[in-house]
Amino acid sequence: MTMINILDDSTINKIAAGEVVEGPYSIVKELIENSIDAEATSITVEIKEGGKKYIRVTDNGSGIEEKEVEKAFLRHATSKISKIKDLYKVLSLGFRGEALASITSVAQVEMITKTRDQQYGISIEVNGGKVISKKPIGCPNGTTIIVKNLFFNTPARLKFMKSTQGETAKITEIITRLALSKPNVAFKYINNNNIMFTTLGDGNLSSTIYSILQDDWVKNMIEVNKKANNLTMEGFIGQPTLYRGNRSYEIIYVNGRYVKSKLVSQAIELAYKENLPINKYPVCVLNIRIDPSLIDVNVHPMKTEVKIKDEADIFKCISTSLKEALIEEITIPMLKVKE
Ligand code: ADP
Ligand code: MG
């Protein structure tokens, strides 16, 4: 006779962790997104050995109340939505309530958190999904989460991690994207005791681009501020001379969320079509705002995919507006030369 087993929570969480925690970079992403959702204005990320051994994210956000602390580590536990209807107006980066549960099921986690209203904070240690200590502690407002020894209890996954260099590169990429999406948050990124970058958090996107990318990007970018039908686009797009051999610097946000969208990428590339060499891709840091009821971000647990209603309309809007922005920029200097 075949037995049908009902899996226990620890096994369920480890399976789910496969989708949420692809590697150290996904932990960094989830933790920073939680800090952003907690309205932090300052976020520090420190990693060691490509995040495989150590990741620490500290924020000055809302913190978690003492009585809620343990709940945060449960699966499907979230303060961001309460019913399915909420999904269609979700503007927070998280809503699935599974990141902390997944991370703690495959690593050793320590969290220190304090709300403004509490006299003291709480320090809690969770090891492979089990709470091993919880005690009051003196600490600043906000939350610090330390994740050590990723995949210590899932040897098969441990083997699939990349070299320290490879994992570091992926972390740098995700922090860059998140920091560029929030110019009003001061980010600090430390790798093996070296400061990789800091941003001012002054709300200025061009100074944020300058702090992170540090070359002459800003000088070669065109500011975009367009409103078309039911979407707005803000940010910077590169001059056609500032191209890359792949899409990794087509940095796109939809309603503040970093996404990889083939539709948006193709619309951007169409705008550049006549101005770029073949097989080259434009660079941009572009924030698109759409009514949240017109998009679905609940496509995959990693939440980097987005489904857009009225795709054809949105595609046209993006490519036409960007083309306009490019033409304005390219033709104005030419006119000046003629004068
Ligand atoms: P989600 O972000 O989808 O809600 P998570 O598992 O990432 O799920 O987090 C669970 C809950 O823990 C959040 O909804 C939030 O209430 C709380 N939380 C997590 N990280 C932080 C943080 N840095 N600051 C304040 N609250 C946090
Ligand atoms: Mg989250």
Overview of the molecule:
- Keywords: DNA damage, DNA repair, Endonuclease, Hydrolase, Nuclease.
- This is DNA mismatch repair protein MutL.
- This protein is of the alpha+beta class.
- The protein folds into 2 domains: 190 residues, Heat Shock Protein 90; 124 residues, Ribosomal Protein S5, domain 2 (2-Layer Sandwich), CATH 3.30.230.10.
- 31% of the residues lie in helices and 26% in strands.
- Strands 5-4-3-6-2-1-7-8 form an 8-stranded mixed β-sheet, covered by helices on one side. Strands 9-10-13-11-12 form a 5-stranded mixed β-sheet, sandwiched between helices.
- The protein starts with 8 loop residues before the first helix and ends with a helix.
- The relative contact order is 0.12.
What descriptive keywords fit this protein?
single chain; about 350 residues; alpha+beta; Heat Shock Protein 90; Ribosomal Protein S5, domain 2; 2 domains; 8-stranded mixed beta sheet; 5-stranded mixed beta sheet; about 30% helix; about 25% strand; disordered C terminus; binds adenosine-5'-diphosphate; binds magnesium ion
